[in-house]
Amino acid sequence: MKSLLKKLIERRKEEVSILLFDDDNPHQQENYSLKPARLFALLGTLHVAIVLLVMLLFYLTPVGTYLFNKENRAIRASVVQVHDRVLALQDSLNIRDQQLYQIQSVIRNKADTVFEIRSIAGLDGDYRRDEPETPPTITYRTSHYPGTQSLQAEQIIHSDVFSGIVQFPAEPPVIGTLTGEYQPDTGHYGIDIAARKGTDVRTVADGVIISSEWTINNGHTLHILHAGGYATVYKHFSEIIYRTGDVVRKGDVIGKVGETGLLASGPHIHFELWKNGVSLDPQHYINLN
Predict the structure, then answer these.
(1) Could you tell me which of 162, 166, 198 has the C-alpha nearest to residue 282?
(2) Predicted confidence band of residue 90 (pLDDT cuts 50, 70, 90)
(3) Inter-residue contact 237 to 260 (CB < 8 Å)
(4) How many of the other CB atoms lie within 10 Å of CB of 257?
(5) Which of 34, 97, 129, 226 has its CA 20 to 30 A from that of 204?
(6) Residue 265 half-sphere exposure, CB side, CA atoms within 13 Å?
(7) CA separation (Å) from 109 to 103, 248, 255?
(8) CB within 8 A of 52, min separation 6: which ones?
(9) Residue 277: which region, alpha, beta or left (left: phi > 0; alpha: psi -120 to 50)?
């Protein structure tokens, strides 16, 4: 066989004849004429075609994945990215559900906001209709602390306590030093502002306290709901002034800087800002400088 191939290679450019004999019938023979170069070219083309067919079989069908455990990197990266987004959205939905539950608890367990109409001094039942009428004074109570605030009827109607617009950038809740930045990838959904223990902490906008509680990790904590779907969270107070259901105004002192809770490392306030259940970077919304 080797000698035949050697002869064919040596005479590849010539036309050769191949005689085939039958061992059982030596007188019967078959004669074939061919050029070795064409034969080699045909065999090479057939070999390349087989190789290409096998490669297409591996790369265009699941066979390649099963044989070599090879995955499409682009598809895998997209799947991982979608998975991470789903997890982030699920966390946001869980937090929003907690906030809605707290709001429902306030509505169910707390008395309605009191509006008292007081008659104006000096007026009696026989006043004349042709005299200009003075609008009555309406008292809007902000729960038990810090007392009452008097507003005219028109002011109540146009009040932005619940339906107004939250103004940003706002003043920081406490004057201090930024010691921890917004890092949602590590579960730190706010910023840390260090200040002297006992320093006043103020709310950044009008709102209502939807949660005033103590937790082992965060100590004294406040959650405040504002207009426009905004909510703020304050952690590690040494003292809280307001309770759940109280209405607060922008700039009101809501507590004192402390270091309560297992996660506190020195006196500071942890401050978070949320919008419709999605966390935001507070550094973009408050004046830290």
Answers:
(1) 166
(2) confident
(3) yes
(4) 23
(5) 97
(6) 3
(7) 10, 19, 23
(8) none
(9) left
What is the model's pLDDT at position 63? 62
**Residue 228 pLDDT grade (very low, low, confident, very high; cuts 50, 70, 90):** confident
CA 127, CA 244: separation in Å to the nearest integer? 44
Q: Does residue 43 sit in helix, strand or coil? A: helix
Contacts of 63 (CB under 8 A, 6+ apart): 57
Its CATH architecture, for the domain 177-284, is Distorted Sandwich (2.70)
Burial of 231 (0-12, 13-18, 19+ CB in 10 A): buried
Which pTM value belongs to this model? 0.48
Yes or no: say if 235 and 201 are a contact pair by the CB < 8 Å rule. no
Q: How far apart are CA 139 and CA 152, in angstroms?
A: 8
Strands 253-257 and 230-240 turn out to be antiparallel
Q: Give the angle subtended at the CA of 54 by the CAs of 52 and 56, to the nearest 5°.
A: 70
Using alpha carbons, select from 192, 177, 280 the residue that is nearest to residue 231: 280
Closest by Cα among 234, 243, 236 to 218: 236
Segments making up each domain of the chain, as ranges:
2-59, 177-284
Helix pair angle (36-59, 2-10), 10° resolution: 110
